[in-house]
């Protein structure tokens, strides 16, 4: 894959320098969300450069140093746990992205932002779905953001040794929940991510059950999937989409949701993940899965005539645990 194709289009049209923008730390239960903005020398070859979630910690650390040394300019921005609780994680992420771009000494001709949400930067910008796997600039930003946040959490672990932040970096792992039940939340935990953590009879408990402690081993996969589809449908209904069908099954496979608005009949694949530490949920809608969904959609359209334009979307539902408010990302025209 040509990792500079997106940048090349802008540079050849006279729009430069090109800046990549990405974030790290939307899903954790504690600590800030980080963002990075990076301007690389156009066309530079950095071996192993890729989406940070696809790299080992050792490779990320190596690339972090190389990016810092070779970048024309870079900036790091954060939004802390208080801002996350005050604004919500999406708005806090936008704050961090704006701060990262503001930290640049060189004004970008355009900023390429990973995802499909516009953070309203103070420069021209373009959202790129899956940009950290398509653009060298965004991939570099993803690495700076990820490594910067991980190192911050390792430093915080010295101040709060009882939570083992150096091991889980604040994500909702079984170990992290065990520490929360033993010690309760710290000053840097995100209160809005821990609404079900309560003090009862002098002990910390998670109300409505203890599934969060058990990871996925004791959680029925189908029940979790249905939970995610329900959250996705609630979100879509709130965006003026009307429900057409749920869990449509055919000989080719299943379509999680079918919804419509005034222009489109939308076939939706819902991906539920506890966090985005290792890979974005959309990355698991591979070519084979896309083929099956497309075939099922064609079969549905044969039996349900409509003048609406068909579209294939992915809705990502990120949940640190089943008791926290999920983060939902809607990717239109996903494939």
Q: How would you sum up this structure, described in words?
A:
The structure is a single chain. Helix content is 35%, strand content 24%. The strands form three sheets. A five-stranded mixed beta sheet has the order 3-2-1-4-5. Strands 8-9-10-11-12 form a five-stranded mixed beta sheet, sandwiched between helices. The two termini are 17 Å apart. A hairpin with a 3-residue loop joins β9 (253-260) and β10. With 335 residues, the protein is of the alpha/beta class. α2 packs across α5 (136-159) and α3 packs across α4 (89-102).
List the helices and strands and how they pair.
Blueprint: H1 5-12, E1 18-24, E2 33-39, H2 57-70, E3 73-79, H3 81-87, H4 89-102, E4 110-114, E5 125-128, H5 136-159, H6 165-168, H7 174-183, E6 197-200, E7 203-206, H8 221-238, E8 242-250, E9 253-260, E10 264-273, H9 287-303, E11 309-318, E12 327-331
Parallel strand pairs: 1-4, 4-5, 10-11
Antiparallel strand pairs: 1-2, 2-3, 6-7, 8-9, 9-10, 11-12
Helix pairs in contact: 2-5, 3-4
